[in-house]
Batch of 4 targets.
Target 1
Amino acid sequence: MPGGLSRLDAALLAGLALLSVGLLFWATRDAVLAAGFLGGLALAAGGVILFRRLFPAAVAGDAALPDWTMLRTAVDHDDIAVAITDRAGRLVCANDLFATWMGGFVTPPGLPLEGRGAELLKNAGRAAWRDGEGHVDELAVGTLHLSAQVLRTGLSEDYLVWRFSAVERLDLVTEISRHLDGPAGRTLAQAGVMAALVSAEGRLRVANQAFLLRALGEGDASHYAGRDVAPLLRLDDAGTLYFGREGERAPPVRLIQIPLIPADSHGPMLLALIDEEIGVADRGTAQTYVETLLSLLPVGLAMVDRDGRFLYMNRAFVRAAGLSEAKMPRYPGDIVVTEDKGPLADMVRRHSTGQQVGGDLSIRLAGQGDEPVSMRVVGVRGLGEAAVLLSLKDSSEESRLKRQVAQASKMQAVGQLAGGVAHDFNNILTAVLGSCDLMLMRHTPGDSDYDDIQQIRSNANRAASLTRQLLAFSRQQTLRPQILQLPDVISEVSHLLKRLIGDSVQLSVRHGRGLGAVRADPGQLEQVIVNLAVNARDAMGGHGTLTMETYPVSAAEVRAMGSDIMPPADYSALKVSDTGSGIPADVLPKIFEPFFTTKDVGKGTGLGLSTVYGIIKQSAGFIFADSKPGGGASFTIYLPVHRAEKDAPLAAPPPPKPKKSQWGTGTILLVEDEDMVRAVAERALTRAGYTVVTASQGEEGIERFGKMDKVDLILSDVMMPTMDGPAMVRILRGQRPDVPVLFMSGYAEEQLRQSIDIDHVSFLPKPFSVAQLTEATSAALDAAAQRAAAHG
């Protein structure tokens, strides 16, 4: 409809007009007047319609109500507060940030501002009405600092838009301090920039680690606040700047000063120092010279750049680190175990960013066990890309020697313990065997107790065999050395070996030429060969090849071996090898220890190899084991070549001694501190026909000897409390120089004869049987009688 009226509105207006004309005609009964009134209404309606058609916007603007919701959405902003007011000073619209900052929808300029803020804002509003725009830079609502912009706007320019922005106040000194002491400072250090913030008085406020390590060193780097900067730097006559603590050979640095307050050159200042770079050609030449020098040095050395990557490593470093030249590592952390990667990387990074004083770090190399080695890390300057020098000592040979010495010391200590145990055990076995022998003399085969006594005696002999093995390991057994050739010993025992190893194991024997004679007990040497052969058979599971070879080893070859344990000399070597599965690396150092075995329970005592070790060591020889997993094991024995007089024949084995009688007469002084042994020996000798006087220690033996009219033999233990047997015998020999002496002991005869400087004494090793005791007694008396007859 014209004018924007609806059809209903038009019909209603037309009806009212006709009703008015009808009422006028009814009241006046004048048709002309009614027609004139109707014409006037039509003319007025036409004028209104014409006006609305000519001015539709003005009419609509006066009639329509404003929709402020859409405007409020349009001015909503995250960091600018906006408010709109009209000429009447009424708040038309504002966004949420305005309400948040001002504490509600307050009408500008009456805002809760600090100080003269409201007055300044009011003046800005007046300027906006007058000039179209007004500004205020310093406003505050609590701790919030604002700037305001006021704009006049609208079609009729009868609105003001108030825009408020937050002002960020930057404290440059505080921000730089925070960044230098954080990740930004570390980033600068990695880039080779040494940075420090200095106060107006020239004192350190904060600095990154690169500056502190170069200027103060690692020890003082944690106590730097307030230090005067001037003494930390040094200027030479040519105007070149250095760090004072680095001495005369310090690399030069370049200083950049950055004032933090541009208008004040005496205010806080940021110092940035970088190393003076040398030319590209000089840098390449210098690094080449250094690499050439490092390659000639026997010490393991490597160069690392600022990023922690290897630049160069000499052969000694490669060898010390156990690296393969086919696959070289990129970073120092690649050559150490996982636990040491972090500490090594930190130390390299610390020295690459300024610290030149070297430091040592204990590391464990990957693939070389848990034994630590020492690596030295030193910061370097003036070598181009090289920033750190690593030094690693090749300690593989030293470690090997340490392990050998430690193993030898351990074996010696265990040997002393085993010898002491065997000695005490021999006393017990002597009493057991003697008691069994005495009981067997009262029983005949067929008696109910005879078999039980024999069983006890058999087990006691087995125990005695174990003690002999312990004594062999501790090098305290009695040996009967002879001058012999190793091939002869192997030939003697080869038939026994073939039966022991079985038909499924092939025995291969090879002998070298020029073997020298050795001095050893042939029986004990045969036991060594048998023990090694049996162990090899078990390791091969009954199938494989057992190889025995002999060969000479000269003193020059021993020196080339580089062993500190085996002195340079000529040796005859015996090597026993098998084709078994080998000995694991963690088991190899323990194989010579007594009672150590990898066999199942009941299948081995663990004394086989320890016996071998003891026999070889007591024969002045050496034994070494070598094994590779899956490649079998080999045992190499080195016996020193015996140097006899020229053209002297080899000593023949002594003829067997004739068996002595188990009966005799005479008076014997028996001195023994062990009650069981003393009782058994007294009963055995008394039963054999001797008169026995007993004593439990040396002093008592001297007392009993003084009261005896006749003493035909002194039978004494060696080791006794208070006074031992040899000390007692020396006193008694002072009274009767010709009295015969028979010592009995659980220790080796050779060891005792070296410590006992008494002539014409006999020796009886424990444990012994009754028959052995009586035979030794008879032999000692016969030897004394022969000496007396010879001196006539």
Target 2
Amino acid sequence: MARNTVSRLRLALSALCLFGTDVALGNNSPPVAKKRIGGRAVAPQQFKITINGGAQAPNGSTPALVLPESSDLNRVLRKVTEFFAQEPPKWDDGVRMLQDLLEGKLLSDDALDRVNDPFYSVFSEDNRLYVPFASYCQRLVCQLPPEGLEAYRFLTDGPAREAFDRAARDLDFDVLQRLAEIYFATSVGPEAVALLADLCALRGELARAAHLREWLLAEFPDLDEEKACQLRVRQAHTFALLGDGPARDATLDRLSPERAVEVVGMRVTARKLSDHPAFTPRDTRGVAVVSENPGTANGFSKLDVLRLWEVPFTKPDPYGIKPVKGENARDTRFFFGRRTGAWVMPHKQSFRPGMSVTPLFLDERCCLAFKDHDRLMVLDLLSGKTVARFGKASATSFSTSRSSLLRQRLPATDFGLQRVAAVDSLLFCTVDNKAAVQSNKDDVFPFRNRLAALDPVTGREVWRTPKAPKGQRLFFQAPPLAYRSWLYAPVRQKRSFLIARIERATGKVVSTVTIHGGGTTFLRVPAVPPVRVGNTLIQLTNAGAIAAFSLPHLELRWLRRYEKRTRHQKRPRPSASRRQGFGYAGLQAKALRQWKPSTPIVSQGRVIIAPTDSDALGCFDVHTGNIVWMLPRKEKRGGVNFQEVVGHDGVRLYLAGTHLQCVDIAGGKRIWEVPLSHLPRGKPVGHGMVAGGHVHLPFPGGFYRLDCRDGREAGIAEFPTSTRNEINWGVPVRLQMAGSVLLAVTEAGVVAYTVADDLFANSDGGLQRAQALAATGQLGDAWNGLATLLDQGAIAGSRVDPKIAAMFVRFTGEFSANRGKDGVDVIERAQAVLQRLSIEDPRLLLFRIKCLDATKDAKEIRTLRERIADLTLEQLGLDNETTRKGAFPERNDGR
């Protein structure tokens, strides 16, 4: 039965060779029931790793990372080595101990401390890249000599085959993944990994499928040549789908040129595979257009920016920071008392990131959710009217007293706290953000808050995480990420960085997994939310490490102590010893001068990070953590440096600082670079964005637009003067697109704009764009835009959204009203557009009557009224619930 299921799966995969796949990366599989493989539970278990975080190195240098390493696991590994080193080697005893360790039978993990679990404890050979202890054990098994491997398979092949047959019959993805982790070196290992890779390909996770096959080809000790050939053919096809031509060529070169392989039922020699249509690399990267003299040809043209609405925050200056010309202030330090290692906090003018807004849909309305410091606001996107409000007005968040630095809210440390996550119909955000009573205990993290789930439709709070006892309090650094029925949020406990797993329905914190402790002298760092690709969660701590976990159980895939400089950059001078007062009273305030906080970027199977404590931009493999490329933040060329990752378009990455630089994500090569010192309104200040094929960089009072293809100057826009004079543009602005609306967000408020010149070319969602234009009084442009959209649908032969057609008819009535013969022309064009879509709407007849003169056109008016009287109930749309709600009938032209 299992083999028949696998055969059907192989047949389905063969279709990929002809049609490819455009399935987006993701994992929407339903949760699996609790299973056991080899005595090891697969279902979620409650656990918690606690380590001694916050250990500080002498002389005030950066503390070393404290990682969840197990002395018991190392002791078992030494015992296994002793068995293998004896004469003759005790293979049976050694491999049995290793397998018991992998299956969780050897060491007890009943306690909360799961550091003895080989899938949570870490191991590293270079003190840079850490892998789960279980992965290292599997690598040891694969390196055994033939007699040792034979003893291992004699012990494990039976249970591995039984478990694989059940998993293959049900195509159980989670169980197959566990089989690959526990029984990789068995005779069943190649079948399990190959089937798992095929399932990943069918789910659209092509990069992960390629990683699994590469792992099998590289690590499995005695892979059959025929099996290896089949894997390489599939691997070459996967690289072609990913658009990676060099990787495809390298894979095909490993095949014998005259070897015949079967592709969709046809025998083809390996030398001809590169010419086969199924192995032609897809154009996923685009073509870089490089100008000989970029950024100087066109000059800036004026862009018309129209205000939709503005909402000032409760406190116009919530952080007590006066307007500044630059981003950073000088380092300010204050101290008293005894000499010891110092803890520091970011200076309040370090990288003022502005607030972040979250677009969402509520009852078919486009809305925005954001935090007015501690109050959560939900607004209608087009009108700016309040839809829901949670929490009380914010209290003053700053103090003039230097001793209160601990309690002071800072723009940099609020980067994660001010974000809102939207999952289905609920909003998730942090609440009760406050500092605890000042303490003299350096091992206590003096901040606390809670996580809340809010329903914007009903206006009620669904749940709030319960208060934890002292010593076990969690500080939520950012809103959570959702996967299946779970939420995952980055948290702090004492001086350790962790990931918490939370029940989405109740808010109960089921478990926490430690990433590391220590790693920074900052008491608080700018936290960023986690990102997900497939069933892999990636978290950057901005305190020395980035880690990848397997969902839903948060088992470690890899952890990397990221590089803070490239190999060509000089090692920074060690910092001198500093002084600190008693407890936290003598905290230092230090300006952050490296990268601005940014969420990790995942694209093309790579994760790109710009840590706030690093002078390097790092690109790593999502599946292994291996470094792909690195770029320095400061170039050797005089004065060239970067501070911001503006964004990406899936193919290229854009960096801003003294210059704007475009970097190829695949190889890390610079495509073009333009200086920003010549801009007419001065140097950009704030956080830009990439949208509509352009890079947008804000300056006080407006923004520049530059072409993504070559950096040429495409336009400049100045924000209209605030009607309330409450929005202060002297502070940095964060630009963000929400549908068709451009948002300028500062610490003082949110203003929504639309750019009339090329609104339709720069954003998605024709209905939203038309509504935005109509809201600004540009009804004619909105009507023309919808007419063009409907014409394009008719040409393409695709079914048009009934909402677009309904909005078009409504705009036709408003646009033609009181325009006489010109209004009749509008209606006739609307009728022609709808007829091409086989849509008839009786309202157009009524609109035409209103445009005609009752005296001169009496005969035509009478004819139109007779036509309306002759319409059937079906034509009037009164015979079914769908048309009464304003929808339109299906097309009947057969297309």
Target 3
Amino acid sequence: MKKIMVGLIIFTLTLSVTASVRVITYNVLNFGGNDEDRLPFFETIFNDVDADLFLLQEIEDGIGGELLLSVINNGTNDFSGARYLNGPDTNNFLIYRNSLITFGSQDTIATDLRDISEFELIIDGNLIRFYSCHLKASEGYENERLEEVTKLRNHLSQLNEGSEFIIVGDMNFYTSSELAYQKFIADEGNNIGRAEDLSDQVGEWHNNSNYTEVHTQSTRSTQFGGGASGGLDDRFDFIFSSYQLNNGAGIEYIDETITSFGNDGEHFNMSINDGTNSVVSPEVADALYEASDHLPVFADFNTIISSEPMIVVRIPNIEEEWQQGTEHIIEWVSSSFNDNVKIELQDETSEEREVLAASTENDGEWTWDIPLEQLLGDYKIVISDAVDGNPIDESNNPFHIIEPTTDYTIYEIQYSTTGPSPLEGVQVITYGIVTAVGDYGFFLQDGTGAWNGIFVYEYGTTISQGDEIDITATVAEYYDKTELADIEEYIVLTSGNLLPEAISLSTINVNQEDYEGVLVQVNNAECIDDSLGNGEWLVDDGSGEIIIGDLMYAFVPEIGEFYDIIGVVDYSYSSFKIEPRYSNDINITSSVQESIVNIDFDLYNYPNPFNPSTTIFFELTAKNAKNAKITIYNLKGQKVKNLSPSLCHPEFIEGQGETQYSVTWNGHDNNDQPVSSGIYFYKLISGDFKHTKKMLLLK
């Protein structure tokens, strides 16, 4: 008998799994560029949660997104942000860790209230789509939420079979029986877009103590800052994944990691920082209370490394408008693929393709000079392997070839008798001199007078005051302020130019749209309120009030003091305001009482300029001198030194019934610390009368 030996060889497939990726969703409660006071709280939260991918809802403007990115980076460049796309309401914003995630492209899914954002990201060679939602709030709007989820699921159903995705956001579901929730998880004929809730805590969440550990709103028992109140009693913030996500490929959910951050299950109907919180420090609990009325929710994922070649078209991708005769950069990213690529232009009407580049380096960028004779219409960019066409990708949405932009003056952009600019939404070319520069943009003016100024939004701008520029940008209305946004390009023609002369106005006349963005001056305006909040104060020259802001320069005024003020006119929070640019824009003047009574203190100091000390001289009758005092201020209006009358040295003046007094200032503040070089004001007050002079300390 012959024996046959059968060898059984067992192959073990080892999946290469990387370190986990933490994904967080967070409704940040209407956060915008004017909410910097909440940044320290977000910084505390973000440092503690240590996430890799942030999907944020209720972002009011691009500045808000950039501010949150800055606190997450905390002085590094570890994180980047997606493009801020301004929709019809508050918007979503994505921030990702550069070392783990490659940004592919982004898109929006329009709904009746707010856009749903789509982000295509590459993680370890896998294309994963993330969706950030903020569905219609409140009970009684279940049908509206169902419509929003239906639009998202219809979009998902068009993806390729096996596509993996994560859906996050503020869903405003009160119960898992709600039709919109059921639409997410329903078993339908097309299940490409079917999702599953990563939490197993399903049921009637609203005001139900059985679900205390998954509640995410509200962090506050009392209402403030525009947020909800009532304490933690609703599960509104969710993370869904594509159905049966854990299939041994792509991204894998790590079981039981979904967490309502900061919720210890012991704060039902209470503020998150009431008493002791057993899962976060008191500092973090306080930050969660102050930052937003929602808790962030996070979940951890592993990814299986993929070597499948991939190309993702990044730009154009979101229905951009490109003009005939202009230059644009086509962008893409690739994974596990380094060969040359072919770039084609696909006509969306005929579906015919024109080769723009038969073979170009796969470096992620290619510049296209659009011919002046390029036909107007809708197109997509198709990028593929230059040899065999695989891998391949195309723009998610068509972009539009349009006619060249027309030149307009700032006056033509601004002038309107009905409110918004007649050119709202139009890309324009305009010209002007930069009159002021702030953190979030600059003011541009062409000539002097009404309708000749405008604000240009550019966060972190490198432009300088006095630059003469040509700019191509889109006219936008930002909460009723006309501005230039979405800058296509600007060219600095010359630098160091003289600025247009500030137009002199009464304080009441500054409060009109005619002077929005224009350099103006008001004179002898009395401070009638020194603390409106947010660094703003109020002045009136007798004609009516105007707000003085601190967009570019913060000044501490004194009630009853009179000022000459120069600045550009801005409009925010439904109010016009003058925005001084630096210390020289604010000068203290004499009071009305002084000019009426014609009191002459013969006030002066010597030497002036001085170093290290100067003597201040003034003349008063003995009666007036009894309650006289001298105060030193810096250019910001802050008190530096109070000079005691007991330090004054009297010298009687024959025949005048007055006495000359003198007091020496040694250049030190009230803490006896030497002050820096610069301009200082000294103010003499005697009874109801005041007089102010200027002096210069040189070191």
Target 4
Amino acid sequence: MRVQSQRKHGRKAAALVMATVFAFCGLQPGSIAMGAASSSGTSATTRISVHDPSVFYDSSNGKYYIYGSHMAQASSTDLRSWSAEGTQGYTNNTVYASENVEGVYYIQNKYSGLYLDIENGSSSNGANVRQWSYNGSDAQKFKFVSLGDGYYYILTGASGYKSCLDVDSGSASDGTNILQWEYWGGEMQKYRIVQQPDGTYAILTKASGCSSGLDVYDWSSEAGGNINEWNYWGGECQKWNLVEAEKNSGSTTSATGEALEDALASSFLWAGYNDSDCSGGYGVWAPDIIYNPSYVWNDGSKGAYMMYYCTSSTYIRSCIGYGVSKSAQGPFSYVDTVIYSGFTKGDNNVTTTSSLGTKTVNTNYANTNIPKLISEGRLSSTRGGWFNSAGNYNNSLFPNAIDPTVLFDASGNLWMTYGSWSGGIYILQLDPATGQPIYPKTNSGNTDGYFGTRIAGGYGKSGEAPYILYDSESGYYYLYVTYGWLGVDGGYHIRMYRSKTINGNYVDAAGNSAIFSSSTSQATRGIKVFGNYDFSTLSTDGYKSGGHNSAIIDTDGQRYLVYHTRFNGGTEYHEVRVHQQFLNEDNWPVTAVYEYLGSSISKTGYSTSDMTGTYEFVNHGTDASTKNVGMLTTQSVTLNSDGTISGDCTGTWRYTAGTYYCQMKINGVVYKGVFYKQKDESASHKEVMTFSLIGKNNETIWGTKTTASLSSVEGTFYIKNAFSGLYLDVADGSSSNNANIQQWAFNGFDAQKFKIVSNGNGYYHILTGASGYTKCVDVAGKKATDGANILQYTYKGSTNQQYKIELQSDGTYALLTRASNCASGLDVYAWSTESGGNINQWNYWGGQCQKWILEPAG
């Protein structure tokens, strides 16, 4: 069959092209197949609901991962069809893990400064555990060994690491002695190790259900002071420093199967679990992943997938932590909590009671990592400006520590940006070897010694979910920030700024700084990427509150915007969407009108006939309201061949020949962007021309070309093939009988005009403009066979000059020949995409080369 033959040729041609690519690039074939979403042209989609999706491409397996708030995560190989990764929601126990503290340590008490010690260096069962002055002997060395479930046993150097720390008789009572005993795996020999905000550790006993921990009895500061088990309340006599005793003695092993409250126990000490706004539950939001080849594990090996996340209890009391893994799928072992917000100058106890129990958090800054940083010389001092006159947190100038995202700059330096509403968006440089912030230490201008540099927002104005993407082609860092409230009527939407340096100054298309003053009207700041919109070609009720985006430049240089969106259906349901982006002539990324369905932009541009016509049109404006935000108005405009714009908006338009660039001038504002023929979001995913442009006024305008709605197919038309995009044409514009019918690039001549006239019996004849409409489209020799030629001949009303014109589901038409009893139709021979490709009759099977678009010719 002809269809099979064409498919075989297509495979052969594709194989030759790919072989050329491999040879030129010096790549293995597998790396291309896994390298880019564009390697697949499918428009098939599998939806996923992930809030605040952060995208990461893992070159080791060719997968794209998105991680989001509330423990939702998914993967895809083409950015269209998504599969859930593990359990969705807070019962998931595969993403996060508790800290990996495997290794050999000296264990120093914070209060006394003395060290755990096996009395007299004994190796015997029952030897007492005490504190003693440091001497570096084996009696003071302890080896932490993971059981794989978040618990550890602690072997003693005094026994040659054969015996371990043991809670006498497995008692849970306060005052129970801690001693040395041969390891046999009993519950009294298991411990959970939880890092505290000051960098010390609680060593909690499983014998007590982890409600008690190792404690220096009676706050002794003397060598020989006894170690016992006592109800853990956070006293300094219960906190321990783990001091490395043997270099690189750790491992990269992650615990598995832990409940979230155990995996992130350290961050939850401040916020995010059974506390205030997350009473009875959790508040773990907006993780972001990066692969860092320079990260050093505690066994000395390098390279880690790093996940930065936030936990939050109120609109200002939150914290940011991070974990590491050997896999993009996790689990990510907790490392540290690095930024706290919402702290107070003095004691302030916040108590929450729920089905999960009663929890009290003292919001004094002393319960964050700030005192530790000062003692280590990484921060000069506290700052009076952090607090208002009442001693509460000054959230007008300082951030809410949520929504972290991490990236490398053009020089290979590692950075984290974060923040939400409150004091704005901040940025901090990170140490790639540890993942720790390089705190500025001192304050200057928009830079705070602890929080970093403010690069956007402030004064409690909306703005969250910062995401920075560096584009080497333009040399800019692009900062995305989401304005509004995330609910369906909250006006959630994405804004964009850019800078030549990663830490600012970020500006919008009008040149405005992203940093606000108390009087800033934020509606005027930032390019509004899109708002709430609807087109007739959408298979949804229209999109609302699309935001909290990430972005990626793929291995083939293609740009994508990834975000979650709600719908105009009256619910809070949300899904992920991915749109392509393209740099305009001013190096601003413009966002494609429709989600990515496998289309590719034509780098050499499009024909005038493709670009001219009537479009559904949306101006996304600059509104920044956060309540009762409805849908934007969908208008109609026509791009005329003389360069004017008519309809609901008027102006002028032009394009740059040989490219996809275009400009429009509407109401005196110049917009710059691209034309892009892409698959729409109708059920048939037909290809339509679209445009997307950004104005100097920070507005984005979108258009999607409409197919003329024909109440009747009678009339004069240009007839375009759906596959090639070329037009029916009488060869050489001849008016003679037997002149050939071919396809040709659009030129608007009479040779491309055809008048469809009804015969009154369901059939039509098609008169040719080349003949002055005296001749018609004719099946040569009145044949019914495949391959019969189509030509021009004097109209006589015979059956080989009659056609049934049937509308297809995608809005195109089949031109079926009565000569074949309508079994066959007009067809571009051999799927030609060249001007001059012949038109013949072929058995109709619905191929794109047999479908035709009727464009009114006037």
